[in-house]
Write a structure and sequence with these properties.
Structural class: mainly beta
Number of strands: 11
Distance between the termini: 37 Å
Helix content: under 10%
Order of helices and strands: EEEEEEEEEHEE
Length: 124
């Protein structure tokens, strides 16, 4: 079982990136999916989440209106479209899968699967 994140890179402030997280080894269509960011020297923080059916999305206040999470259940892939990027968005971004959205939002139980990170660097 593997979550493979990709799409990170170096971008100027105000630019855009799209991260992808492809799942393999099993189907994640019944899992809530999310993205977390970990800036240098800081803890991993919630960025965005999407329900198992894609019907509900959730965002950290710092990215509302700029980032959009989506999923393609047929492709077993979740995306994070990042627009109007800011230097403070610089972080390693990790995708995650959990049986409930609450787990992703509140970390009230262990997250089932983590992907490896992809680095996003936003220059000023």
């Amino acid at each position: 079982v593997q979550l493979q994140a990709s799409g990170g890179g170096l971008v100027q402030a105000g630019g855009s990136l799209r991260l992808s997280c492809a799942a393999s080894g099993r189907t994640f269509s019944s899992y809530a999916m999310g993205w977390f960011g970990q800036a240098p020297g800081k803890e991993r923080e919630f960025v965005a989440a999407i329900s198992w059916d894609g019907g509900s999305t959730y965002y950290a206040d710092s990215v509302k209106g700029r980032f959009t999470i989506s999923r393609d259940r047929a492709k077993n892939t979740v995306y994070l479209q990042m627009n109007r990027l800011k230097p403070e968005d610089t972080a390693v971004y990790y995708c995650a899968a959990a049986t409930t959205v609450s787990t992703l939002l509140h970390r009230d139980s262990p997250i089932d699967y983590w992907g490896q990170g992809t680095l996003v660097t936003v220059s000023s």
